[in-house]
Amino acid sequence: MNICRKGAAFILTAVCALTALVFFGRLAGETAPPAPTAEPVVEQAIQEPERPAEPEIPAEGQENAEAPEPEEPEPLMASPHFAMAEYRCDCAGYCDGWPCEMRPELLEKIEALRCWYDQPVIITSGVRCAARNEEVGGVSWSFHKRGCAADLYCPGVGVGDLTQTAQKLGMNVLPYYSSGYVHVEVLP
Ligand SMILES: [Zn+2]
Ligand SMILES: [Zn+2]
């Protein structure tokens, strides 16, 4: 009986020892790998942001340096004091802004009007497409649709004064006293 007990105790001890070896062996095997893998992850995490950051800064700097150049083209001038864009159709997209060209004779006379007062003259309406003309309540035969008319005002100058001067310079004028601007036009 003693032999049997000793044998059983030995087997139990051996099983426990083997189990412990396997268990700790696995633990050692499992805990060991994360340590080396964790370090490279940290290194990569530090390196990755640094690498893109270096090329991004010069790239942005180049874009900023290059961007202003195309943004500064000289505007197309209708006359010395007026950009052509001031006469474009101001509709919300019915046309591309130029249903027709502005009449050069009118542009010259408006420039002369501006030089007469030596003060800024504000164009509130130049050429209009048919849709825009209808939208603002223009008459169907409006000269705005043919690039032969413009609405304008000169801050500090009365509508009556502006009307007389525009007429002297050879324009047909419709004064809008209540609205504070004049409609000027030349024959097509
Ligand atoms: Zn338009
Ligand atoms: Zn008008």
TrEMBL record:
Sequence ranges of Low complexity compositional bias: 38-47, 56-65
Stretches for region Disordered: 33-76
Keyword terms, alphabetized: Signal
SUPFAM superfamilies linked: Hedgehog/DD-peptidase
Signal peptide span: 1-28
Gene3D superfamilies noted in UniProt: 3.30.1380.10
Peptidase M15A C-terminal domain ranges (all copies): 81-184
A family per Pfam: Peptidase_M15_3
Domain of life: Bacteria
Annotated protein name in UniProt: Peptidase M15
